[in-house]
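re: the backbone from monday

yeah here it is again, tokenized this time
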């Protein structure tokens, strides 16, 4: 065996060891952030490099103008394994909980919560419809500057508001306990987004959120069987949109798509079908590890997170807003073609400071998610908090895939409808008011006076 093949074997053994320890602890469940990270890591950092090596996948190397050596390949495998350990240990330790349901059913939603959800839907639905219309009418116009897409048409808030439909659907499915009538808005939402041909990941994340809510309501620690059946058409759906963004609009208009008729071998067919960008985070990470810091000469030192303070400001209000992070040490596109690609969470840590930045970034994220997991099991009967958590963990694959601050945008649009729902339900329900108590001395006598005439009482005062 070559050094690279030995490294691949060791890499698989590390992954299996972490997964085995996780299962042996009794902490493993659908609701644990480590479950999502292991699934992500196994797909893009274990399976993908094996396919790249043994099936000679090179489409992404060509796209990025890069020819990695075996040493680059091995170092990237080591980075992903260290990232797995740095994430798993604090996430498992801090998130340690009693992983069991004490009640047979979830807490039912109150009448005030039902009314609050209706009012919330009425308030937000016009914004969602306007957002869809803005996108379909050409609002998504802009240009790439330094690898960052800059909008020139509508505001980002206007275009992204349609993402509030996902958590609203989750809330209705949770409140109605997945009644068939609640599937109508879900099917309509899927049809609209499919016609748009954007945000393929929105379908996957919504599917994960709904599956997690269903499992929570039915007191199951793992996915129900029907999710695996639905995962097959979802994968085909995901890949069809990835290959042709206008796939469904072309199909509805009966427009034909010309396909190459050149004969292909079986190996070429496999490469043409699977050597694509969908799950190629290992290839992107290999580019990052090779270029930083050998070619860039420096790290970012976490400066990319300063964008959290500048990103919320619309460019129309700040025409000179910096593109991307307000403080930039390098641009990956200066060393190849990284346009439209994502570094992943391990890549983000590596860019921040090499091995130290990798361990620090993954440890912080693992700790925060472990804390959230512990709070979920402590307050699992609170249907509001549970819904927040379940919608939030469904967003995790996007964070693991992108790295950086992109997760803040997803959480903002997914948590905003839930926050509005809580506020509206509180306003429409029984509210607590301040009360005061007075200590009376022993033997004190009280006389109750009822003022029958409000006008006389007012004159007396």
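seq for it, each position gets an aa:
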């Amino acid at each position: 065996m070559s050094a690279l093949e030995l490294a691949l074997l060791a890499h698989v053994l590390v992954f299996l060891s972490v997964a085995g320890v996780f299962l042996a602890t009794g902490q493993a469940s659908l609701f644990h952030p480590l479950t999502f990270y292991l699934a992500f890591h196994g797909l893009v950092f274990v399976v993908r490099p094996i396919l790249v090596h043994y099936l000679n996948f090179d489409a992404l190397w060509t796209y990025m103008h890069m020819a990695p050596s075996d040493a680059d390949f091995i170092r990237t495998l080591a980075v992903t394994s260290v990232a797995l350990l740095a994430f798993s240990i604090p996430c498992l330790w801090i998130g340690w909980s009693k992983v069991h349901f004490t009640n047979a059913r979830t807490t039912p939603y109150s009448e005030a919560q039902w009314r609050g959800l209706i009012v919330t839907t009425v308030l937000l639905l016009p914004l969602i419809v306007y957002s869809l219309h803005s996108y379909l009418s050409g609002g998504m116009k802009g240009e790439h500057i330094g690898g960052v897409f800059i909008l020139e048409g509508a505001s980002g808030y206007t275009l992204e508001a349609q993402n509030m439909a996902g958590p609203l659907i989750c809330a209705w499915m949770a409140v109605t306990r997945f009644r068939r009538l609640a599937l109508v808005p879900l099917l309509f939402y899927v049809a609209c987004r499919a016609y748009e041909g954007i945000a393929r990941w929105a379908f996957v994340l919504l599917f994960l959120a709904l599956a997690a809510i269903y499992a929570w309501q039915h007191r199951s620690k793992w996915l129900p069987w029907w999710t695996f059946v639905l995962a097959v058409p979802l994968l085909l759906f995901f890949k069809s949109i990835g290959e042709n963004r206008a796939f469904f609009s072309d199909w509805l208009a009966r427009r034909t798509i010309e396909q190459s008729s050149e004969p292909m071998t079986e190996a070429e067919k496999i490469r043409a079908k699977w050597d694509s960008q969908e799950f190629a985070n290992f290839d992107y990470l290999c580019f990052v590890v090779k270029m930083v810091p050998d070619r860039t000469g420096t790290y970012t030192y976490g400066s990319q997170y300063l964008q959290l303070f500048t990103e919320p400001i619309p460019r129309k209000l700040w025409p000179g807003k910096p593109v991307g992070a307000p403080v930039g040490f390098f641009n990956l596109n200066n060393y190849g073609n990284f346009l439209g690609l994502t570094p992943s969470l391990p890549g983000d840590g590596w860019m921040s400071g090499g091995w130290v930045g990798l361990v620090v970034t993954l440890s912080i994220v693992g700790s925060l998610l472990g804390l959230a997991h512990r709070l979920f099991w402590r307050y699992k009967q609170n249907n509001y908090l549970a819904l927040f958590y379940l919608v939030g963990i469904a967003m995790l694959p996007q964070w693991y895939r992108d790295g950086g601050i992109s997760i803040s945008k997803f959480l903002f649009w997914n948590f905003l409808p839930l926050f509005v729902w809580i506020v509206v339900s509180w306003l429409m329900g029984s509210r607590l008011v301040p009360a005061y108590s007075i200590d009376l001395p022993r033997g004190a006598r009280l006389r109750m006076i009822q003022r029958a005439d409000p006008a006389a009482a007012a004159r007396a005062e």
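Residues 106 and 392 are 19 Å apart (CA to CA). The longest strand covers residues 142-145.
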